[in-house]
Amino acid sequence: MRSLSIAATGMLAQQLNVEVISNNIANLNTTAFKAQRAEFQDLLYQNERNVGVNSSDSGTIVPVGVQIGSGVKAAAVYRLGTQGNLVNTNNALDLAIQGRGFFQIEMPDGTTAYTRAGSLQLSATGEIVTADGYVVQPGITIPQNTTNVSVNPAGQVMAQVAGQTQPQLVGQFQLANFPNEAGLAAQGSNLLTETPASGSPVVGNPGSTAFGTIQQGFLETSNVNIVSQITDLISAQRAYEMNSKVIQTSDQMMSTLSQIQ
Amino acid sequence: MDTTTYIALSGEAAREQQMAVLANNIANMSTPGFKGERMLFSEYLANAAGGSQIAYVTQAGNNHDMSEGPLKQTGNPLDIALNGAGWLAVTTPNGTEYTRSGHFQLDPQGEIITSSGYQLQNDTGAPIVVPADAGPVTIGADGTVATADGTIGHIPVVDFANPQLMVAQANGLYDTTETPQPVKTTTIAQGAIEDSNVQPILAMTQLLNAANELKAAKTFSDAENDRLKTAIEQLGKTV
Fold first, then answer.
1. What is the helix (H) or strand (E) element at residue B92, kind and residue range?
2. Are A90 and A215 in a shared domain?
3. Could you tell me if B169 and B218 lie in one domain?
4. Which of B40, B135, B215 sits opposite A256 (nearest CB)?
5. Which of A27, A117, A210, B230 is the most buried (most CB within 10 A)?
6. Is the pTM of this model over 0.80?
């Protein structure tokens, strides 16, 4: 019975759906986390009777064919790129990006990763680093004896050093944009990396055309909408149950058949 | 010849096929833009001895349930749902095919593509390119694609004289030999996708029906078996 394997593809798909939803819910409070969605597509069809073929010499055609589908597959699990809410933390090194763009992070192996999670820290040498200690490019060092750091929406970092009257410009944050943000590969720890699907990064100053601005003292929350996640979870569970019902019914039909005397 | 058993067999084979169609509908309950299939059966008449006719059941075809699925908000600016009849045209290696599965994304060149990588067509059949430095994309109800810098393209909605002639090609795509006609009345909703139009309750009742009909056919062939057995016993008895 084909219906057994077809229903199995349905159960596998819903299982993946629940996995994606549970990861979204688990990351409800992850800074700048982007919710993911599983997208499904139908599998190949078996044409048992072709539509549109001639059904007689006088040119009449078959109006509907017989096509039997073979189930469902996951086509993509994609990230929703919508902006998360900005929450005020009053921490000088909490930076939220309002609009498009990613911070560029220098990984220990020399490659560049991208993130929107702006909860930044200072290293022992005064460099601005991520919570994992990776340098935010271009490396910005805050001088010693700095009493106050301010970052303006255009990404300029000003340090007020004790004993000086004027704040001093110590660096400029730059953001990277991608033609296809959904094509970036997630690496965990809020980091994303470039892929052939994402295209090459376009680097620019915050606030310039197509780039977002930087909000100091704010963090971007995850864009997970808990209400829609829970409703999606319920419908995924029901869909899973119905596919299992198909398996059960197919099994019952097979047992009916095997009892034919 | 023992035709009675074959009649019951034709019924059982038909139920097996119907189960496959129902299982596929249920498996695709969360597939965006999926159109449920309905199995149609017809009788196949055969002449039997004595001038009577015997009716077998045979597959006539399955038609697409072309009703609209519910719209589901996703918030993704490149998700589009069609509100009304019609199809979106995409360029595939097999030529132009049509879909109502509304999740699109950008490729590295900025072209709007499906999740299988096929380009969404504009009015002339060319891909729609979103410039890399453009801001957010807005898609109007009439299909106009624009960024803050102005219009960058138009998504046409097309329909066909007889959508039943469309052949499902997997990945949410349909192919047809008919000529596409532009539709003006159908609007496009941005940030939403059309969910599968499979009605779970209906699908479950059809499932139970198929199982019960199979049981009926089985009871019938069992009864026929008893009848034959009795006939052989009775007629073969030596007086």
1. strand B88-92
2. yes
3. no
4. B215
5. A117
6. yes
Q: How many domains does chain A have?
A: 2
Contact B75 A177 (CB under 8 A): no
Nearest to A181, CA basis, from A211, A158, A156:
A211
CB contacts < 8 A (A, B): 231
Residues contacting residue A192 through CB under 8 Å, at least 6 positions apart: A102, A113, A114, A115, A184, A185, A186
Do B75 and A80 contact (CB within 8 A), yes or no? yes
Q: Which residue range(s) make up the domain with B177? A: 71-194
Nearest to B61 among A49, A71, A210 (CB): A49
| SS3 per residue for A156-190 | EEEEEECCCCCCEEEEECCEEECCCHHHCEEEECC
Q: How far is CA A205 from CA A6, A120, A155, A228, B232, in A?
A: 52, 18, 7, 35, 94
Residues 110..139 of A with a Cβ closer than 8 Å to B: which? Answer: none
Note the pLDDT tens digit of each residue in B171-230.
Answer: 899 999 889 999 989 999 999 999 999 988 888 999 999 889 989 988 988 898 899 899
Please give the residue range of the domain that contains residue A247: 2-50+62-80+224-255
